[in-house]
Amino acid sequence: MNLRSRIALSRAKHPSLAGHSRIGKFLARLLPYYEYDAREFLRADGCPEEIAAQRQVGLAELSLRLSEKAPKTLELTEELRDGLSDLAFTDLYRVPYPFRAELRRHLRVGALREASDGVRLRDLDGNWSYDLTGSYGVNVLGLDFYKECIDRAAERVRALGPVLGPLHPVVLDNVRRLRELSGLDEVSFHMSGTEAVMQAVALARYHTRRSHLVRFAGAYHGWWDGVQPGVGNPRDVRDVYTLSEGSEAALRVLDTRRDIACVLVNPLQAMHLNAPAPGDSTLLSSARRAHYDKAAYAAWLARLRDVCTRRGIALILDEVFLGFRVARRGVQEYFGVSADLVTYGKTLGGGLPVGVVCGRREWMKRYRDERPSDVLFARGTFNAHPYVMAAMNEFLRHLDLPEVRESYEDLDARWDARAAELNARLERRGLPVRFANLTSVWTTLYTAPSRYNWMLQFYLRAEGLTLSWVGSGRLVFSHAYRDEDFREVADRTVRAAEKMAADGWWWGDGSQTNAGIERSVLWRALVTRARGR
User: How far apart are CA 206 and CA 196, in angstroms?
Assistant: First the structure.
């Protein structure tokens, strides 16, 4: 790589740790662990003693509410945590790490649910709560709908059963419908969104004979280490360029380099370009930002499409999370862009695990006519499982109902109005909480500097709202939420924020700033490392 190319590549990176994966990994290895004791936990922001005492009383009351409400759920969650590594990890990273040891002495979160009804979930103690997890994106059309999909699917393929290899005829209808929805030529089935992304990238490299993929800062494309060059991946990934999404410099790099096989785009990033997925474990201050400009993002995607076409680069839209949530024909319809390859997952399986790649014929081919041994092998044992295919068919057929088509027409207006209404209520009450949204995917923002914003997730849970392990960072509603359901969630959200404010967690004397908070956190880390602790 010559000097000019290096400079252009450097300028195309986002000026953050998300945009510089190697620097991020290096600093992560240096970051020391430290924890606040009981005294520091309540006084991390230098509050007066009367505020610390107020927080202590509030913490004790909140702990009592949560523990008395669901003793069986909490007890069995603790037992499960001891043997389930997934839960051990997520439970550990709910809040910023200096607070977590002391917090666990007071507040625990139950991870078990045994029933669902409409937009609510029931725990093992009989408590019903409103579901704001969205099942990590699966739950677009409502839990009752997916339960019905699975029941009908099992009945439809029961005669064949879990036969692998030969295909159930329902696969033919799925392929027909997916070709219509995606506007693409061919389909490939997988068992997860991560697998689908792996296949799409492999196809792009195979056909271009180029080495590198481009992803954008902060974007998530599954747990495969080939698309995670930064923190969380112990392998040194050298065939990925992480560029700044929405930038002119990124387009220039794509337009000049000769080693780029494909560009991966996760349109969910339109809410927070070049920033990682929001989670309360990193909520050290109130600096989290989110803003959604559909027209601007669509215009940039159109320019990206032009560059990829001109340079023979595969444009891959990763719709695993957002697909079919924003439009009947997915993100391509919503933003008015045509991809070479599209990856789907989650909701498309009708409630069962699935991954799908749809693509143009020239990109989907896995062999070369002139080289019989030059093939791309990608096949999973459980691809096109009959039960999954039948549940998928139930979902796809549902999309063709007139009332479902109509429901997509005012989707943005409906969810934007709900967010505006809740934000207005919070503002009138002087509470430092706001919400930003991309249709039914929301994130929580904070308007005043604070070290304790992450506490809101526990007050929300105490009010009967079920959140995913990332807390208030990402709230995912199903489209089954009626106005009366949403009003109940809004009421509970306002009550939770009022109680948190009353307990003193949002105290401020006007001297705190987000930059000041972040400097103090950095200083504590440097002192801890210098002391070798």
Answer: 15
- Identity of residue 301: L
CA distances from 234 to 21, 28, 462 (A): 12, 11, 37
Q: What residue ranges of the chain have pLDDT lower than 70?
A: 1, 533
Q: Residue 487 in contact with residue 112, Cβ under 8 Å?
A: no
Q: What is the 3-state secondary structure (H, E, C) of 186-248?
A: EEEEECCHHHHHHHHHHHHHHHHCCCEEEEECCCCCCCCHHHCCCCCCCCCCCCEEEECCCCH
Contact 446, 455 (CB under 8 A): no
For residue 437, what are the β-bridge partners?
442
What H or E segment, with its residue span, contains residue 335?
helix 330-335
**Angle between helix 386-399 and 170-182 (nearest 10):** 50
- Residue 1, pLDDT score: 60
State the chain's maximal CA–CA distance in angstroms.
Answer: 80
Q: What is the pLDDT of residue 488?
A: 98
Distance of CA 377 to the CA centre of its chain: 30
Q: What does 370-417 look like in DSSP terms, one character per residue?
A: TEEEEE-----TTTT-HHHHHHHHHHHHHHTSHHHHHHTTTHHHHHHH
Q: What is the dihedral of CA 227, 230, 236, 237, to 10 degrees?
A: 30
Return phi, psi of residue 486, to 5°.
-65, -40
Residue 213 in 3-state DSSP? strand
Confidence at residue 377, expressed as pLDDT on a 0 to 100 scale = 85
∠ Cα 51 53 425 (to 5°): 50
The Cα–Cα gap between 96 and 451 comes to 10
Question: 155-199 pLDDT, tens per residue?
Answer: 999 999 999 999 999 999 999 999 999 999 999 999 999 999 999
pLDDT for 318 equals 98
Tokens of 392: 């998928």
- For residue 160, the 8-state DSSP code is T
**By the 8 A CB rule, do 217 and 19 touch?**
yes
> Residue 446: what are its φ and ψ, rounded to 5°?
-130, 135
Q: How far is CA 224 from CA 25, 196, 270, 344, 418, in A?
A: 17, 11, 22, 16, 36
Q: How far apart are CA 180 and CA 54, in angstroms?
A: 60
Question: Which residues touch 22 (CB under 8 Å, ≥6 apart)?
Answer: 229, 230
Distance CA 355, CA 372 (A): 28
Q: Which of 298, 365, 305 is nearest to 336 (CA)?
A: 298
The H-or-E segment that residue 510 falls in is: none
Q: What is the pTM of this model?
A: 0.95
User: By C-alpha distance, which of 417, 426, 464 is closest to 444?
Assistant: 426
Q: Return d(Cα 341, Cα 325) in angstroms, integer.
A: 19
Q: In angstroms, rounded to a whole number, what is the distance separating the alpha carbons of residues 322 and 298?
A: 15
Please work out, in degrees rounded to the nearest 5, the angle formed at the alpha carbon of residue 508 by the alpha carbons of 504 and 513: 135
Cα 207 from Cα 224, distance rounded (Å):
21
